[in-house]
Every structure is written in structure tokens, then in C-alpha cells.
Amino acid sequence: MARIYLRPWFNVAYLISASASTTSFSQKIMSHLTIIVAATKSNGIGQSGKLPWRLSKEMAYFARVTSSAPEGQRNAVIMGRKTWESIPANFKPLSKRFNVVVSHNGDYELTSSRLSAPVHLCSSLPSAVELTSQADIHRRFIIGGVSLISETLNPTSSNPMSCIADRILLTRIIAPDYPQCDVHMPDFLEAGKEGKAVWKRASHDELVKWAGFDVPAGIQEENGVSYEFQMWFRQ
């Protein structure tokens, strides 16, 4: 899974959504991009192009939350080339979702052993966001890798505000710490330029309401790993 890297194919932590937020950021910008990612407390998300943990329940959560959409609509999953390449051939494109791969190589060939879902190639994040701004797209998720996550976390002069995430679905890996992780996402909890917190954690009830299904609350235990499903929104 050489995504740089979020989850394994049907399980990546994390990205983009279209629900009405109560934050001032989303009210003004309305980007409706959700990052979905699993990360340790030190923000480690991968090791040697793979996930150092294997959590089937967490992967099922990823699949369900990124697939759930009202009748007649679908969600979009936006990913980098390495994330696309990390998906096993028999699982890509991700079913029931509008797949978008971002690569600066315009000649990159998207190969798949099946045609169960649409997949498109875009040369940049802005073009991917524009492509998925269509009426039948319910929510848009950034699912990896780390470069796309970084790009959607931090506004820059070259990055339109429409490409900035206003929500993060975070699976926080609490223990072990996985010090062997060699890929880390930015610390989104760092204070902003004015010393104010940029992100605020939603309550579990808010997460359940947004997801549209019952999400396990509190610390989960699986294969010797402790983790928790969280939702954060930009203030």
C-alpha cells in the first residue's frame, strides 16, 4: 500500500464530505472535503508504504462511511497515484464510489481488472475537486496519500480555499505507538497563526448523526491495537 499513505484500499483514513457544518469556516467556504485517515498519537500513518496494523473493523468502517449516500447519489474518493497502486487489482476501483486519481503524469494509465465503478485521472487536486463538484456527488473524501492530506489541510497562495478540508474522520491509533512509522501526516492540532485552535472535536453523537449509522463509541480493541473513531471540524 504505497499510499503515502492512508489506509489500505477500502480502508483509508481518510477524506471529503458534504454535510452542512456549523463552523464559520464551512459556512464561508463550503468546501465539503473530508479527510479520512488512521494515525497514531504521533501522526504516523504508514511504514514502508504499508500500514503497520491490520484492523478489519476499522476497514469496514472506512468502506461504509465512504460508500453511504442517498438514493441516486454517490460519494467520491480522491487519492494519489501511490494510493491507487496500493489497492489490490480485484478491489479497484473502489465499488459504489466515484474514484479519482491525482497524478502529475498526464500519460499515467489507470489499469483495473474490473469496471464496477467509474475512475478518472486528474492532474491536480483543484481539477479533482472541480470534477467531483457535480450534482450526483454526495460527499467527497480524501483517502491518501500524505501529500494530498497535507495539501487539503493547509491553505496556501496556490491552493484554492475550495480545496481545503473542513472535516477529518480520524481513527486515532492509541496503542501501540508504532515508532517504526516512517510516514507521518501533519499535526493538524497545532495552533493556528493567531495561537487559536484550528480544529474542534465533534461529539460522538455528532459523528453518528453525520455518518448516518451507528459508530462504535469509546476505545476499541482489535488484534492488540487500541483505537478510537473521532470526527474533527475546522473552526
| Secondary-structure class | alpha/beta
* SSE pattern, N- to C-terminal: HEEHEHEEHEHEEEHEE
Taking the sheet with the most strands, its summary is: 9 strands, mixed
Query: Rg, please?
Result: 16 Å
CATH superfamily: Dihydrofolate Reductase, subunit A
Task: Report the count of strand segments.
Answer: 11
Mean pLDDT: 85
CATH topology: Dihydrofolate Reductase, subunit A
Percent of residues in beta strands: 25-35%
Work out the helix count: 6
| Amino-to-carboxy terminus distance | 32 Å
Just give the CATH class.
Alpha Beta
Architecture, CATH level 2? Answer: 3-Layer(aba) Sandwich
Protein name: Dihydrofolate reductase
GO molecular function: dihydrofolate reductase activity; NADP binding
GO biological process, one term: one-carbon metabolic process
Keywords: NADP, One-carbon metabolism, Oxidoreductase
Keywords:
NADP binding; 11 strands; Dihydrofolate Reductase, subunit A; EC 1.5.1.3; NADP; dihydrofolate reductase activity; two-stranded antiparallel sheet; alpha/beta
